[in-house]
């Protein structure tokens, strides 16, 4: 597309309004602007300090968003809604992080209100695993699935459940706390304060911690790169995490019988090195059932899943999009 044509497309695409998606995770910030059809017109990502503070980061997003709107020649009043993904369990009633110790700089803060005060646009907030599941359902590996599960394995572990084609939230909105299911009684201390949580045994931080004596200064990305290059120790560490995740996934699968389990998040970049052991344990654990075991596949949206989910959530909450005026139609109109 020539630049003149592109500028014309961008102008037409956001004539019907734009939405913003933001994903705050433990170590990373992602921000994107998209039109009604979820076509991303501007996107940024940057690292965050381990115990970053919410007020600083919300202010930073405010400035970044102003720049991004300027880049696509959009006015602030063209921004209709903002979706925010938080990589921590969320309490639906209070809009606050529901478990201490996971994102310390965000505890006790009604996140939607705080973001709304700075951005001055309606804001909706959800847990990043729920939003990754939503995005994979709309755009990726969960398309057409009715009863399914999305497992996110990054520094921590989370899950989004899909029942009857809709995200399942539970009574308090905190369903899917897969990472904090106990798989080893009196096991290692989890950052949530509990003992023996899956996350404390098979999450990215736990994998890195377990390799610390052998390799100092290693990050999760390095473990994946080394494993993919054939390093036996790193391959085994990922496989053991996969086997533990498989035990927990088989237990969840026994309860709600998903047809498909999608594995995403940072560690999913290890591909079959992670998925193989998960599948093996799930298949073995469910072998006595007459029903087939759930399919275990990789996510299609990679590290952007929660961000795309935040954008999807924002489009769901912006009633201002005129019916039919999506960028697809506009693209056709442009020829
Ligand atoms: Zn825990």
UniProtKB/TrEMBL annotation:
InterPro entries, per database record: ATPase_NBD (IPR043129), ROK (IPR000600), ROK_cs (IPR049874)
Transmembrane residue ranges: none
Tree of life domain: Bacteria
Pfam family, one: ROK
Family the entry assigns: Belongs to the ROK (NagC/XylR) family.
Official protein name in the record: Transcriptional regulator
Organism from which the protein derives: Homoserinibacter gongjuensis
